[in-house]
Queue: 4 jobs
Job 1
Amino acid sequence: MAEAKTDNVEMITGDPKKAIVKLAVPMALSMLLIMLYNIADSIWVSGLGPEAIAAVGFVTPLYIILVGLGNGVAAGTNSLISRFIGAENYQQANNAALHGILLSAIISSVFTIIAVVFMVPILDVLGVGNTMRYALDYSYIIFGLSVVFVFEELLSAIFRSEGDARRATGAIAVTAVVNMVLDPLFIYIFGWGISGAAWATVLSSVLSCIIMGYWIWFKKDLYLDLTLKNYTFQTNLITENLQVAIPSTFESLIFSALAIAINLMLQINAGYVAVGIYSVAMRVVQFATLPLIAIGTAVVTVAGVAYGAKNPKNLNTTLSYSIKISFLISIVLVAVMFIFSPQIALLFSYTEASSFLAPQIAGALSILCFFTLTVPLGIMSTMVFQGVGKGMHSFIITLFRSLVFDSLFAYIFGFVFGWGLNGIYAGVVFGSFIGGIFGYILAKRFIKKFTNEVLENNSKTIG
């Protein structure tokens, strides 16, 4: 193994605080670039008018499911590899990565067939109405080539699992820049409209896959060796991956269900334009939470290594330190969004067709920005459970944090209390806060139980 590879592995098996920072910083940069091109995508699409903005908002729940498939298999693969690295089982780490690639190919192919065949009735159920033409033009391209997005996330997870966040970041950075360049070219210069935005997204992700695939199978300088000679089919690697992947994917279904529920509440309260306003405001909030998600993604690897090495002290440090630094970051992010919400809103209402949306976007953002403060407790607890392979625990936290509490309080504040749109926004924020506390309590109880088990096993060994 080359020295750099050894350094990466030593880093993730050493001090969890240093590992989290070294993994999270490059991942945060890559995620910021991804969200920048998502926001750029929104800005360019918003120039097509409110119907195009709303169409993307209606399609978002389906896209969340697609991302969930990629994240699910990637999380399962990341968790398995990092646990085997922690347990110093190199062969099984290789085999786990290869099984992850197989799973990603199968799952994404099935999703593509279902999505393309049933696209029209699915969009009807989502209530796209007059925006159907825009929604179809966008959806058939994105979901018809969904294998690209799932495979991209899986390859990135393989790099992260061995502590090589730098190259995972590099590939995604190129993707983000290319996407931002292609968007205006395809949408306006080529005159492809909303279809151009979809093609820009797909082609940039294809480039990311090519770059990472070159490093893995042609340059071959990873810590892991992903050649077929290291592949031996093992049912337990499939089932252990799915124990994380399925709950993680269903977590994305929960996010999708929440988006559908909130969209319905908004549409009932103020029509389809409100859906577009909420979609834009939440994109800005999601952009702000990316550094926190990057920390959480790092937690999956570091927690997996600590669990595989049977080191409860490092596991507890991983949870507490990740929450601490992410909360400090979130305070700054909320302040920026709240103070500059009017200026941010202007980015999405720069044309005559969308200029009237600026005050409404600013108002939504001034409330929804506080959602960022609720992220650290919930997401770090969720990622710890994914890292140790307890996908169902992660799912339960997300179920209550996102669907049950968010939608419940959004309904109570918006309709029962009669606070309207602002009540729906506030309900989403308050529900996420309550759910975060719930998740943190579960995570601390699990770590305490794990600590007792390790101490008991050590006592038996000594005895």
Job 2
Amino acid sequence: MTEEELNTVDLQVYLVTKAAQSDDLYFAKKEIIASELRSWLKIRIREELNEIKVDSAEGKKFYTEEYSHELTKADYIAELSIKDDKDLMLKFQKLMQSLNKEKDSFLDKKINFQIVKFSKNEKNAYFIFYRGVKISALERRKVKRIPAVRNGEQLVIQNQNIIEFGGKIELFVCEEVMYILNPRTLEYSFSYDDHIKKQRDSNISRIVTMKFFDNESNVEEFISMSSQYILSRGLASIKTETLEALEESFNDRCEELKKIKTDLPNEEPDKGEYLKRYGSLWPLYEHIDIENRKVRFNPDYEVTPLLHFFSDKIVESFLTKKIKTDIY
């Protein structure tokens, strides 16, 4: 659209909070925005849409593929039909209802995401940006830095909440189809993470049945701590080939860990440099019996290093023997 054509498009902005404990699911408030901001936002989203087009024989076009619950997204726009998922359809309907209820009694700090709604000829498009409001420093506790702005000849505290607009397109909805560029925006906005939990649980189940787990591995504690939501995506994204490499190479990795520990220098500065060089590996000794080549999960220590060991974070540099090359 030209700028003249953009002027015929209506634009509305809503700030939304999730209300998981309410049947409404969402509360939203419609914001009054200045004409200058409205014009800028129309142009910015138009430009961002152009940015995600790709070259083709027919010229620039949007490249979409059906959303397949992949945990990492390739260079395409994932397309998800809302009506094909009853749970998602219900949540989207609740969200649309919240835009019409004008419930504006919640605080800025409760806001989870923003919706920019475009309307023309009775057709609507909804752009969802998963970002909250930057609360004024004066409202936060234990502030160590505070922003100031010029007011005439003096600097004064910037004491207003800040709402940022623009940026890369994350997700938009048009005619009951979601177009997804950032899967996390879908997951967070609509609590759409069942596929992640399923894959996470599958990978955990496979890991704890490997030969280096036994009755003394504290399996139940390991499963409980590994199932925390913040760790779910990392666990779910562990590839089958990574798990196969782990099971096949665990004994070799234990031998490498044993050698790393044995070769620790006694004197500085060599000792400090050595500790730093293998810093990501030292926490593993709290969870792995390198002599008996078994996992001995210790719930008094973070589970994260052990999960890193099971995933690409250490697999790429450790299980593929890049670290081993450094050792020998």
Job 3
Amino acid sequence: METQQLPVVVIGAGPVGLAAAAHLMQQDIEPLVLETGPVAGAAVREWSHVKLFSPWGEVTDPAAEKLLAPTGWVKPDAATYPSGGDWAEQYLQPLAEALGEWVRFGATVTGVSRVGRDRVVDADREAQPYVVHFQYADGREERVTARAVIDASGTWSAPSPAGGSGLPALGEKTAADRITYRVPNLKDPAVRARYAGKRTAVIGSGASAFTALAYLADLAKTDEGAGTKAVWILRRGISGSTFGGGEADELPARGALGLAAKAAVDGGYADAVTGFRTDAIEQDTDGRLVLVSENGRRLEPVDEVIVLTGFRPDLSFLSELRLGLDERLQAPVALAPLIDPNVHSCGTVYPHGHRELSHPEQGIYLVGMKSYGRAPTFLAMTGYEQVRSVAAAIAGDIESADRVELTLPETGVCSGAGLSEIPESDQTAEGGCCAPAPELVRLGAPAPSPAAVAEVPSGGCCGS
């Protein structure tokens, strides 16, 4: 078969992967989506109880909507905020069903290369199609050839460790039964009991850490949670930007995320420990955990540790490809300067497409959260624009592929879902940025307004 007649393999049936398939079909290119999980949006479903800080109007893709239209699918109110479960059940699952046989579940990609060419061989390399190896849950192995590969597998499966050096802290693996790398679902009675009345260290300074602080503070003011205390471990100090954009954020729910974390600290539900880079996690004589810093500083014992230090891409199955990745972020070289978290928030990332996502190996694209490497500033609408551009480039429509236009909301914390649950009656019809500004709410105390501080997600779930 001629290479141009082969399908394009899309790795991952999450929001961006399924959108990529929809855009490919719009270009009359056959997609083949390979998804490790048993259902669409498997990673999203792991935080199904939490709400995004982006409203429905910003988390559905135009090409996907066109594909769904003949099925009778009705788009939810653009101004309302979905939970992870809503997103998966009301959008991702119907989209996967509309794609039908072009999506295979329980298929884990184990390797990608050029047919007959390992990473070293130059001869006639560009003329060879890609070969993708994958394994089903029952152990069966298959391979498929492809004209191009779009990796939208995300970073959810590879959370960063507690260690300040980027490696697991000494004793971190030994204490694994009392360490989690996700924001716990305190609506689950068993999980709630694990943290109720306990002293818990929260390591991290982003949206996920804000989320955990808010949840624990809320638990602390309930009868069953009396005595619950959070210890917020920050590798840096607290500054004016620590809590994000607040009421200046163009995404009100995102701004509320930082405000609620600040309320947790101000209200005495969490103690902040700054300038602490974890080097070891030891156990005291009672079996509780003691965090030790690089300079030997020891904290008071804690019962549990929540590590929320970000995510990193799994590049292991791409080792036979010639990728051009930034040495710091592990993002495409041309994209990395545009998303550097030391410089950019979600809203200051410039529009980008196939050119910024390209590699020395032509025809391979890392998109979605995975394209950002270790940068935490990703939004769903960014991924949708990425795959629109990439699909056009694969189809040979370079003019369309180069026409990248995207305006992102300015200011504040990125990579996470929202903390402010705005009552349905108060949401306007014009989208998320028109909702009422969030108010500072003391968690666990009577709210001064109808805006309640509530459901929040694990890191990276605002569009990955």
Job 4
Amino acid sequence: MSTVTIEAGRHTVEVARAEKVLFPAAGGAPEVTKAGLAAYYRDIAPYALPHLKDRPLMLEIHPDGIDGPRFMQKNVPRHYPQWISRAELPKEGGTVTHVLANSAETLVYLAGQGCTTLHRWLARADRPRQPDRLVFDLDPVSDDFRPVRRAAQRLGELLDELELPWAPMTSGSRGLHLVVPLDRRADVDDVRDFARDVAGTLAARYPRELTTEPRKADRGKRLYLDVLRNGYAQTAVAPWSVRPLPGAPVAAPVSREALDDPELGARRWTLANALEQARTDPWAGLPARGRSLGPAGRRLRALRS
């Protein structure tokens, strides 16, 4: 198989086995080769990098395509070029050296390694225990997206009561994420506990529709409000990442108003049209500076009392 070169950032990146099909043609969508995936990440880089900068990553890699073996990679392999940024962070019994995707050329190189999807920490590497993002993952029991839109609207209303900014993102899989920017003051354990209490409050308001039960057998037909991604060293799929599913769907930020659209779905945007969505700047209304959880916590305790 051939090797192609792609200009990205300050480097020319070689993509080996460029014509290797990673996403077979499916449902009217054309096949996507490794070169096609690399070109997507080069083009989406201006929109993706602000959500990735200085964040440790877990890489989802499909070297033989999405129908082949998968592995999740945390440690940076020795053969990765030195111009790729890294961060060594503590784990139980040692450390892990993570990739930091701080440049377009890094995104292209990772795609050339068969990395389809970037899963990011919710904290930055310099202060790994102080997240600047909180994520609610709305996980439905079926592919019907109406309960997801309804749950997102209700969660958004609760976050408005708590005077916290938020923005939605289709997961590219089945559900939807609501993202809250934080000011990096709260410890990760406090953030996780706050997210759990918010989810519990909402589930108590709508007990027939929503649940915080982690066991699938205990959920019934209710949508699961997942907050486990807010723990230390946990990850959430990064905005504009491609998911390893037929048609190459993308985790796409959307506006709040999009939640009113009955055509909205978890896989509405794909590698073929995500750049068009990115250019609309769907999170333009999200403040640049995150909020403190202190006032929001007091408001939540008042609601729960």
